[in-house]
Specification:
With 154 residues, the protein is mainly β. It has a single domain, classed as Pseudouridine synthase (2-Layer Sandwich). 13% of the residues lie in helices and 35% in strands. The protein contains two helices and seven strands. Strands 3-2-4-5-1-6-7 form a seven-stranded antiparallel sheet, with helices on one face. Strand 4 and strand 5 form a beta hairpin. The longest helix is centred in the N-terminal third of the chain and has 12 residues. It is globular and about 45 Å long. The relative contact order is 0.22.
């Protein structure tokens, strides 16, 4: 919200997990995971230090949850639906890397690449596809869907 008077109401939607989010990602395919037949829900504990660039999965009670489903194979890559139930820093990237399916053009996970100038010809292949919620001011169901496509799968 651009209006400071109403911004808090929308921020609370995220904090209280009252927003349904759906992303798409392009990543390698591992046929042994059978994510097209059996989508998987990944649970882990993610921590982010202020002193370190990357977030990490550590032992302990899970605080992050993502449902991962392979939607299709195109151009030798998989198109995945990612549905996070939580919103930890780099959660989708970590969960995909943890499955051995690092998101295409991710300079952080599964391996931190040496710092380089941004290469806009190779964007991270992660797309915020859909968001829906009940508007806290009008109480109407509200949704937004992106019409963009992942360039690696076009």
């Amino acid at each position: 919200s651009t209006n400071p008077a109403t911004r808090g109401a929308y921020q609370l939607l995220f904090e209280n997990r009252r927003i349904r989010k759906e992303y798409e990602a392009a990543a390698p395919i591992d046929p042994s995971l059978q994510l097209d037949i059996r989508p998987r829900t990944v649970h882990s504990r993610i921590v982010k230090s202020r002193d370190y660039l990357l977030a990490q999965e550590v032992p302990g009670e899970p605080n992050a949850e993502t449902r991962v489903q392979l939607l299709e194979e195109r151009n030798g890559m998989g198109r995945y639906r990612l549905q996070p139930h939580t919103g930890k820093t780099h959660q989708l990237r970590l969960h995909m890397a943890g499955l051995g399916l690092g998101i295409l053009n991710d300079p952080f996970y599964p391996v931190l690449l040496p710092q380089q100038d941004d290469d806009y010809s190779k964007p991270l292949q992660l797309l915020a596809r859909h968001i829906e919620f009940v508007d806290p001011l009008s109480f109407r169901p509200t949704s937004f869907t992106s019409g963009l496509e992942l360039s690696a799968l076009a």
